[in-house]
Amino acid sequence: MAPPAGQFRPGRYFAFFVVIAAALYSLVFFTGGGDPTPKLGIDLKGGTRVTLTARTPDGSDPSRDQLQQAREIIQNRVNGIGVSGAEVVLDGSNVVITVPGQEGEQAKTLGQTAKLGIRKVIAVQPAGAAPGQQQGQQQPGEGSGEQGGQGDPGTEPPAEEGAGGAPESGEPAPTSAGGGSAPEARQQDDGNGADTDEVAQRIQQAKQVRQNPELIPADPSDQREVQAAQRAQQRAMSQLSCAPGRIDPLTGNDDPNRPLVACGDDGAQKYVLGPVFLQGTQIETASAVYDSQQGNGWVVNLSFNDRGGRIWADFTSANVGERAAFVLDTEVVSAPSINQAIAGGDTQIYGDFGQAEAQNLADVLKYGSLPLSFDSSDATTVSATLGLATLEAGLIAGAVGLALVFVYCLFYYRILGVLTVLSLALSAMIIYAVLVLLGRWIGYTLDIAGVVGFIVAIGVTADSFVVYFERLKDEMREGRTFRSAVPRGWVKARRTILASDAVMFLAAVVLYVLAVGEVKGFAFTLGLSTVLDLIVVFLITHPLVALVAKSKKLSSPRLSGLGAVQRIGSSRRTANRLGTAVKEA
Questions:
Q1: Are 472 and 415 in contact (CB under 8 A)?
Q2: Is 177 helix (H, G, I), strand (E, B) or coil?
Q3: CB 248 within 8 A of CB 236
Q4: pLDDT greater at residue 357 or residue 230
Q5: pTM for the full model?
Q6: How many structural domains is the chain composed of?
Q7: Domain residues for 89?
């Protein structure tokens, strides 16, 4: 038996809903900052979206580590374009690049495989040093890690070498004296980006200065060539900014056959490097291990394939005491010294590493030149005008759908239809706050597919109301009053609503897992709306109906629209009484 209507306290449910709404809007307006509006996708505000599908040479699925490393590399390349607000996210086995505005054409060419190369270090200079303070690689106190044969401890290096972009010393990386005039010193926060011609011009200018063949003298015994090379090195270093947040137009665009002037990943040093003598694709594996036997702490064990091992052995035997730089897309991730000739290719890199730093460096070396290539499975460019028109069309469609639902409910259910309109309005209020917060917390962007999901959800929510109201009518047809039918009808309707929403939510989850791109946005908003539908039905619609049932004025047949079913119920009650009287007689 259902409990009597008097035991139900709608005020508690309303209070709980008010608490939820107040908490959400407090987070919207008083935390996180920014505009209290949802983030819009490029199909609504304009921009370029490129979906890159990863593939391996043997056709197997790429690992999550490979995809994550690829995402970070492509993110650095997108930043190199100089467009603010760009995003790179993983979507299953796809990498999705989103560039707002009209400056995203370069994003369509960023899917080339990352380039990890090994270059000889010619000279090193602290990033904050004035021009002319250049140091050779043998100067003390440079703080590079050291590299030797497997198990060879070498000498303990100073605490600077690391991976992951953080200086070991903990000091901020100073800005180059001449960084402001460099082509790559363009600020990221101008919001305008750079068009294709500007990007090409900046790449060409950077190559002329930072990949000038004169950076290395052709004849080291010719003093004039040596002096000319030193002047070229000083000029290139003075024009290179290693400040945090820098933009490097050579990211992914450098020439491996030319010298290169580059920054370290921590921004603390500038390097003059020789041409690439060994490609990162020759690295077979890299792993971070704790070296307890030699007392070196966390180290990175590195192995090359046969061809790479021979090249590495020849280079190390000819350059003992020199340094080799591992360069990922024009950024030096490690520049260890060579303690001895290394035969066989098995190498150990050690320094003042922590576990996370060693693992990060191992991942970069292992996946820096991925055995992955990317196919551009989708590339969409939407103008801001078209995006605005699409948004307006979506809002109009949603408004028309809401209006039709409202008219139908008011015509068919009367006072219950008013409750439907109020419940949908409160549901929209909650959805809006959730969209704003999801945009801030997880970067969720509302696109046209998401708008479609919300429009479909209007029907799902209205269907819950219809189920409840029809259950009320069924109870009243059996002879119960409106007030007594509410708790009994709710118990039966609740099971149907929960089952229906559970099926809808599971369908949305499956679609979200299997789909990619815009279809995933549709599935996300459909699932989100289904969950919020339950909150509204349980905390708003049911309590409101219970309040109406307790009011003599509001529950009158004229306002409730239940006069017909009340008459049927009354006739059935009369017939039941007569039947009982006849039976007793």
A1: no
A2: coil
A3: no
A4: 230
A5: 0.54
A6: 3
A7: 42-110+374-379
